[in-house]
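### Sample
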Amino acid sequence: MVSPNCEVIMYVILEIKGSQFKVGKDTEFDTNRLDAAVGKSIKIKDILLFSDGKSVEIGSPHVKGVEVVCDVVKHFRGKKVIAYKYKRRHNERRKKGHRQDLTRLKVNEIKQTK
């Protein structure tokens, strides 16, 4: 039961480049690098689940009539991940590093177009 003083929170689960994120309004999240300039606005229509606080709508595979408008905050590189392989008694060692290119997005609004 929802108390009358409780604020209704709208959220969605969206999919970007194979990754899923649960976001609400004014949420910032990091995803793999997108081809969009910093400061530009993008629309995401691959919504898997939509909740307006009263009801939940699950898509099969996507919810129709819902889109999320996000601003591109910045492009950056993630933490360095080290992969180290070695074989004992053979003096064989390999060290490799990787930094993922990422984009930070901020959700401006969740729109229902029904």
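The longest strand covers residues 66-77. This sample (Large ribosomal subunit protein bL21) is used throughout the tutorial notebook.
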